[in-house]
């Protein structure tokens, strides 16, 4: 019923099934009307954190406002779900990171600690080459070898991003 009401609110074009139907169609299927609807539906994912970096739970539809070109858009649907994700941590080992490497490692550790049981992460470092230190896994510890890495002078960021695209299916 809800689907029918939604469809009725859109301009629809009805047409009878034609002679080009596959042979597997029965006579009763040929009598059904076909309804085509053109609509723009955009899926938005949102992660909401508080000032401490913790996930905010219990949010409702009224807590969200979506704007396009300054005009508020109607939310057609709303659901709060916790879905697993895969993330790749890319540690920049270029010379520009020399004074910030400890900070970057600390951020990586905090990120890994915040993952849920069903989330997976991979760890890569990059300078002139890309090194994989941990493949996508539920492991929550930064691999020990990463703590022995030192910065170098060049970077291969684009190669690191391309190498990190092998997320598990």
Word description of this protein:
The protein is of the alpha+beta class and 169 residues long. It has helices spanning 2-8, 27-30, 101-114, 157-163; strands spanning 13-15, 34-36, 66-68, 71-73, 86-92, 120-126, 130-137. 19% of the residues lie in helices and 20% in strands. Among the domains are: 2-36, no CATH class; 86-163, Rossmann fold, CATH 3.40.50. The strands form 3 sheets. The chain has a 3-stranded mixed beta sheet, with helices on both faces. It is elongated, with a radius of gyration of 25 Å.
Poorly predicted tracts of residues: 1-25
Main sheet? 3 strands, mixed
Determine and state the CATH class of the domain at 86-163.
Answer: Alpha Beta
Calculate the mean pLDDT score and round it. Answer: 75
Radius of gyration: 25 Å
Structural class: alpha+beta
**Separation of the first and last Cα atoms:** 35 Å
Q: Tell me the helix content.
A: 10-25%
Number of helices: 4
Characterize the overall form: elongated
Percentage beta strand: 15-25%
Strand sequence of the main sheet, in spatial order? 5-6-7
Count of β-strands: 7
Query: Could you say what the CATH architecture of the domain at 86-163 is?
Result: 3-Layer(aba) Sandwich
């Amino acid at each position: 019923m809800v689907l029918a009401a939604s469809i009725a609110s859109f301009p629809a074009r009805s047409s009878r099934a034609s002679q080009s139907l596959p042979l597997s169609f029965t006579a009763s299927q040929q009598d059904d009307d076909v309804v085509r609807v053109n609509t723009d539906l955009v899926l938005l994912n949102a992660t909401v954190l508080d000032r401490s970096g913790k996930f905010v739970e219990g949010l409702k539809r009224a807590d969200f406002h979506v704007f396009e070109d300054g005009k508020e858009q109607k939310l057609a649907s709303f659901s709060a779900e916790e879905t697993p994700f895969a993330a790749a941590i890319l540690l920049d080992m270029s010379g520009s990171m020399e004074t910030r490497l400890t900070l970057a490692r600390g951020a990586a550790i905090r990120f890994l600690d915040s993952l849920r049981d069903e989330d997976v992460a991979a760890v890569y470092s990059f300078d002139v080459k890309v090194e994989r230190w941990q493949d996508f896994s539920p492991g929550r510890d930064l691999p020990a070898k990463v703590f022995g890495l030192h910065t170098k002078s060049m970077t291969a960021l684009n190669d690191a991003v391309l190498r990190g695209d092998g997320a598990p299916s």
